[in-house]
Write a structure and sequence with these properties.
It is a single chain. The protein folds into 2 domains: 34-118, Beta Barrel (OB fold (Dihydrolipoamide Acetyltransferase, E2P)); 138-379, no CATH class. Helix 4 (170-190) packs antiparallel against helix 5 (194-220). The protein has helices at residues 2-21, 120-138, 140-165, 170-190, 194-220, 231-236, 244-277, 283-312, 314-323, 327-332, 334-379; strands at 34-45, 50-52, 55-66, 75-83, 97-105, 108-117. Helix content is 64%, strand content 14%. With 380 residues, it is an alpha+beta fold. It holds the Pfam family YibE_F. Keywords: Membrane, Transmembrane, Transmembrane helix. InterPro entries: YibE_F. The chain crosses the membrane at residues 6-22, 122-139, 145-165, 172-192, 198-218, 296-320, 340-368.
Length: 380
């Protein structure tokens, strides 16, 4: 019975978290009488569009049939405004499934506009595939990991981001959020144990050191935060008082936190297994083993960060090569400097997590082990 208790409890917690995320009425927009609904395009009018190279500007009129909501089955004509930004604009064709914002009064659609392609179904399919693979491979641990995944999303969406928008200090808010996330994620996987305590302390110590480096070198590199995606759009949407520099610093630490937890847990679990197999091992030898494991893990993890950030800015790197930009100009460009800063600070934080975790694990694990050995010898 006990074997099935934990999966059932965790499943109920996941369902509860998902239910909390669905607190808004389905389909409702922030404006009264406005719904965001799924629709299928039946006809498009491109006569008002103007071609400008690879981009288009102007207005596309889309005729569509609503697939849900109070006016389900009724035809609407939505406006699709293109502003010449291919990364944001979308051009629709008959047969496309769209998300449309529709004003509905007494069951009759008054006016509408297109929002985006409707991608939610396939995103759900991909998420279900992820869940199935995770549960098939990791089983109960996978279920716990799924709970930490949903809980982390909830904390970021309902606590961290609203706190930033409210004007709270981004640095302190990040410290509180990461502490909460670290405890939840590691506890979800490892339960309440010495392993959890060690991995949590190692992660937080490494991230606090990375935060110190972020504040120091961010000031030296004169990075003001406007390099973050959508930063200018956020300011122009009415949030003029936000401290984008500290928000950028927060994003740097937040981005490295997941890998830091991974390293801390790898080292702690490895040292705990070593102690189980070799209960007579000394503290110095155990710490040395943990540091060796940390060297192997950080050797690949830092490169993983580099590849992840490089992949996100692949087209920018290609542009530099195309334009024949000098290496000096590339290094001093604000956007490149910001990504170098993000990669190196995150990597330093990861490297520091390893030895700190090994030292903490040696003190806690061997401290407990030596007490047991001393007690056993006294009893004998």
């Amino acid at each position: 019975m006990k074997r099935f208790a934990t999966p059932v409890i965790v499943t109920m917690m996941i369902i509860g978290m998902v239910a909390l995320l669905q607190h808004e009425e389905a389909g409702r927009d922030t404006q009264p009488d406005v719904y965001e609904l799924r629709a299928v395009a039946t006809k498009v009018d491109d006569s008002s569009l103007i071609n400008m190279g690879t981009a288009r500007i102007g207005t596309q009129h889309v005729t569509a049939i609503l697939m849900e909501g109070p006016a389900k089955g009724k035809e609407v004509v939505g406006v699709n405004q293109l502003v010449g930004q291919p990364d944001m604009d979308e051009i629709y064709s008959p047969g496309d499934t769209l998300l449309m914002a529709v004003r509905i009064h007494n069951g009759i659609p008054a006016d509408s506009r297109t929002v985006n392609q409707y991608r939610q179904d396939w995103e759900l399919v991909l998420f279900i595939l992820f869940v199935l693979i995770l549960l098939i491979y990791a089983r109960t641990i996978g279920l716990k990991a799924l709970f930490s995944f949903v809980a982390s999303f909830y904390i970021l969406w309902q606590f961290f981001i609203p706190g930033l928008l409210a004007g709270n200090n981004p640095i302190w808010l990040t410290v509180i959020t990461l502490t909460l996330l670290t405890v939840i994620i590691i506890t979800s996987v490892a339960g309440f144990s010495k392993v959890t305590l060690i991995a949590t302390l190692g992660t937080l110590c490494g991230l606090l050191l990375a935060l110190g480096l972020t504040l120091f070198f961010g000031e030296k590199l004169r990075l003001e935060g406007m390099t973050s995606p959508f930063a200018a759009m956020l300011i122009f949407s009415g949030h003029y008082t936000l401290d984008l520099r500290d928000i950028f610093y927060s994003s740097v630490i937040l981005g490295a936190s997941g890998a830091a937890m991974d390293i801390a847990m790898d080292i702690t679990a490895s040292m705990n297994e070593i102690l189980k197999k070799r209960p007579d091992i000394g503290r110095k030898e155990l710490i040395h083993s943990g540091i060796n494991v940390g060297r192997m893990v950080t050797g690949t993890m830092t490169t993983t960060l580099l590849l992840a950030y490089s992949g996100g800015y692949l087209t920018m790197l290609m542009l530099f090569v195309t334009k024949g930009s000098t290496f000096t100009r590339m290094l001093n460009l604000k956007l490149v400097a910001a990504e170098i800063f993000r990669t190196l600070v995150g990597s330093v934080g990861l490297v520091m997590v390893a030895p700190i975790t090994a030292l903490i694990a040696g003190v806690i694990l061997c401290g407990v082990s030596e007490k047991k050995k001393t007690h056993g010898q006294t009893a004998a």
